[in-house]
Write a structure and sequence with these properties.
Layout: H1 4-8, H2 13-21, H3 28-41, H4 45-83, H5 95-118, H6 122-129, H7 135-155, H8 159-189, H9 192-197, H10 203-220, H11 223-229, H12 233-256
Helix pairs in contact: 2-3, 2-4, 5-7, 7-8, 8-10, 8-12
Length: 257
């Protein structure tokens, strides 16, 4: 007894012919049941031709839908590639440098959006409720203002963009190293009173951030990237030294405040 006979009795002629035409995707018993039901209906040649025409139309529409999906998929991928910079290269710029710059812009752009959303409750208070702006307020807003400017100029292949991004990254490396040292001391102390007084990121988080920022510094310091910004090795060393001194001063100022 074929179990599909009862199941397919109410199926339309088009559905039954579709099963027959697409037999490789159905069980043999299902195909046999569909053919048996079609034979039992004793369709005229005109009815058979009409069903086949409708099936051909459905098949044609299915192909058109697939072609549209592929077209929009390729269009989206092309727009994405153009957005992140995998399109036309700047004169004298290598493809590797182009992709590196685009990847950094995308990653730090996302990081900036995350940073803003994570501080969405604090920003209005800092902007509108604090009447006396001091050094601490300036230092709080410095990375919030500096990062988008650095990313934008870095994306435009401006030398000042490379310098600003280097300053930002080195400052984050220094401040993260200080947080890591504090986290290690807190772990050694294991004092619940200190834990409640000082909120310090975990050691693993500090290590991850330090590696993340440090790796980015190394990447943008590669000659293939620096050439795009016309940054010499000597200029890179000067920027690194100055950024370290400024970052140390800023962190010392924060500690004193």
């Amino acid at each position: 007894m074929n179990p599909f006979l009862d199941q397919y009795q109410s199926a339309s002629n088009i559905e039954l012919f579709r099963i027959i035409d697409d037999a490789e995707n159905y069980q043999p018993l299902a195909v046999d049941a569909a053919q048996a039901i079609i034979d039992s209906r004793k369709l005229t040649e005109e009815e058979v031709n009409r069903v086949k025409e409708e099936l051909a139309l459905i098949h044609h529409e299915k192909i058109q839908d697939e072609e549209r999906k592929q077209y929009f998929k390729q269009l989206i991928l092309q727009k994405f590639d153009n957005f992140i910079g995998f399109g036309d290269l700047k004169q004298g710029e290598s493809a590797e440098s182009n992709k590196t710059i685009a990847s950094i812009v995308v990653v730090y752009g996302i990081a900036y959006v995350f940073m803003i959303f994570s501080q969405i409750d604090i920003l209005p208070m800092m902007l509108f409720e604090f009447n006396d702006w001091d050094y601490s307020t300036f230092l709080y807003f410095l990375p919030i203002v500096m990062l988008p400017i650095a990313i934008s100029l870095f994306w435009k292949r401006k030398k000042i963009g490379w310098i600003l991004l280097s300053f930002y990254l080195i400052n984050k490396c220094v401040s993260t190293a200080i947080m890591l040292e504090s986290a290690l001391r807190m772990d050694e102390a294991s004092d619940t009173i200190f834990d409640s007084l000082f909120i310090t990121p975990s050691v693993s988080t500090c290590v991850f951030l330090l590696l993340f920022y440090g790796a980015t510094v190394l990447v943008i310091g590669r000659s293939v990237v620096r050439m795009t910004f016309s940054v010499s090795r000597l200029m890179m060393l000067i920027v690194v030294v100055v950024a370290l001194i400024v970052s140390a001063f800023i962190d010392a100022l924060i500690f004193l405040l």
